[in-house]
Specification:
This is MITD1 protein. It comes from Picathartes gymnocephalus. Pfam families: MIT, MIT_C. There is one protein chain. The chain has 229 residues and is α/β, with parallel strands linked by helices. It has 2 domains: 62 residues, Up-down Bundle (Methane Monooxygenase Hydroxylase, Chain G, domain 1); 158 residues, MITD, C-terminal phospholipase D-like domain (Endonuclease, Chain A), CATH 3.30.870. The protein contains 6 helices and 7 strands. A 7-stranded mixed sheet has the order 1-7-6-5-2-3-4, with helices on one face. β3, α6 and β4 form a beta-alpha-beta unit. α1 packs antiparallel against α2, α2 runs antiparallel to α3 and α5 packs parallel to α6. The radius of gyration is 20 Å and the shape is globular. The two termini are 19 Å apart.
């Protein structure tokens, strides 16, 4: 499986399909690392490690893609933005967003948006086991509602075998989402880039692909991410 993945990565690289090739390179590296752990023959271990080093060199190129979401644009649900980066090897996700709060003012639907993001992770094809959320406390009476909602999400995720770790920071400002296969997505507005739906029974309330967006920029990066051999 590892050799086939590597061959596919090379083919995509030659075809200048760099984004897809990076995903395949990373999957190939992870599969070969599993082989190294299971192999007792030191000579084979050495050959596999050499191959991993070569693949790491090819996959270590810097990657940056920018997506501009226009005001009132539709078709930018979470699956549209994230699905191609959520490969089967993704097991851990980090979300940093200061506005995962209760439903009020500018953060009106941020908690529901975070829940929708978690639903996407649970559906796969990735096999997420841990989600780390770093956000800030809501102010005033909203804090108890925020904590109650996050705890409910945490308990619900546990029913699907997913652990949600929640931390709070009073100084957090940047918004980014990272996957343990090396992909990092920065969204100017965080997860809350959708406009308020016209009503609870209006088109776009449930299906985010049909929900009009607020103008924002999405930056996608790939960082070197390999486990120790």
């Amino acid at each position: 499986a590892g050799a086939e993945t590597v061959r596919r990565a090379v083919e995509l690289d030659v075809a200048s399909r760099f984004q897809e090739s990076l995903v395949c390179y990373q999957e190939g590296i992870d599969l070969l690392l599993q082989v190294v752990k299971a192999t007792r023959d030191e000579a084979k271990k050495h050959r596999y490690r050499q191959k991993i080093s070569e693949l790491t060199f090819f996959s270590d190129g810097k990657y940056h893609k920018q997506i501009r979401i226009e005001e009132n644009a539709t078709g930018f649900g979470y699956e549209k933005l994230f699905q191609e980066y959520l490969t089967e090897i993704v097991s851990e996700v980090w979300v940093e967003d200061p506005y995962i709060r209760q439903v009020h003012q500018a953060s009106r639907y941020s908690l529901y948006n975070f829940l929708r993001f978690c639903e996407m992770l649970v559906k796969g094809p990735c096999k997420v086991k841990t989600i780390h959320l770093l956000t800030s406390y809501d102010e005033g009476i909203g804090r108890s509602q925020q904590m109650s909602a996050l705890e409910e999400i945490k308990q619900s995720l546990s029913n699907y075998g997913v652990t949600l770790n929640i931390d709070f920071s009073s100084s957090i400002h940047d918004r980014e989402i990272r996957f343990n296969n090396g992909w990092m997505i920065k969204i100017g507005r965080g997860l809350d880039y959708f406009k308020k739906p016209q009503g609870h029974f209006s088109i776009g309330y449930c299906d985010f692909d049909l929900r009009p967006c607020r103008e924002t920029t999405v930056d996608v990066f790939h960082t070197k991410h390999t486990k120790k051999m």
